[in-house]
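hey can u check if this looks right to u? its 412 residues, i copy pasted from the old doc so theres a chance i mangled smth
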Amino acid sequence: MRTSPSPRRFPALVPLAPAVLVVAALTLAACSTGDGDAAASSDDLPPAAEAGSALDLAEVCPSTVVMQQDWQPQAEHGAMYALLGPDRAIDTDAKTVTGSLVAQGVDTGVDVEIRPGGPNVGFQAVSDLMYLDRDILVGAVNTDQAINAQAAGRPVVAVTSQLTSSPQIYMWDPETYPDATGVADVLATGATLVASGRIIPSLLASKGLLDMAQLDPSYEGSPQRFVTDPSIVQQGFGTSEPYTYEHEISQWMRPVAFQYLSELGYSIYPEPIVVREDDVATQAACLERLVPVLQQSQIDYLLDPELTESTNELIVELVEAYQTSWTYSPGVAAFSAAAQVSDGLAYDDPASGVFGRLDPERMTEIVDTFVPVLQSAGSLPADAQVSAERLYTNEFIDPSISSGLTAPGSGS
């Protein structure tokens, strides 16, 4: 069991994305108009990458590299937002941010456009969006969702991981259940599980941890149910709710207890970077240079305190500028970045020591586990044929890139 710690200073298909508070639309003024006024002049840009070097993306990539996220701006997406140069411009109408793609201190010669997901795209799956709009080069798609996409004829291929373990949690009130050491103890009392979707509950039911009669699938992100009925178990994210409930939700303002679902068999890669299956070949030259940039960007975002802080400031700025019902404070951004490291959510591939590498054995295990779970939940046809080998490739991974972060319990 974990209870929410003190604030730390360093550094889903949605609707399983973190919810801070679902409130009325923000009234803060947008930081730019819809025409996307630049935040800085080109004179402020870092030096250009050496022509033909590994960081020269202009030679091989589209002039604008479009990246599609699966939810609103948040620190779990820090690696993407950390790539934006100082000339970035925010389009408050389209809900996008565009700027020079800057990696490791140099201008790569292309722009990057980052698009948020969730309500900004009508809650469409990222894999669907990528096939509807071929301008999108890369997206963030959970492995279990990629299984559905492959079966639906819109296959996506993961080219690098960002987080290594899922930040999703189930949380409960430690005062109501003082003797509970994990989710199983609370669910064994017959407590109601309030969640959205049936995939993870179906996984727990397959392990004998949950009777599906306990499931209330009505969770929509609001804290109201939890604070008025602390007997329930509720979904959340370890990078968000432990902080917001203790520090930002006025009706609560005390710790919650929680357990990461990765400890209960939710073994997916969370939001790895994917491309359309045919782009593995057609965009190979670009991906050979872009994927190492993405590997290193996640490491830099998490481990460079200055970059963490500046990127988090941008993320909060974007949330305010987009003026949706999503709220995101500097405190939760800092907490999230710190938790990704301290809670062991991002680490080098244990089999190779390479950050961002996808483990073939783990991918096979994910397919073996989640195909029947998805079928049980009704989101995958009973006759679906899914290939683990088609869900990922390590051919663009730079094996020299490591973070030094190790898996929880590795002893390193």
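Residues 375 and 383 are 9 Å apart (CA to CA).
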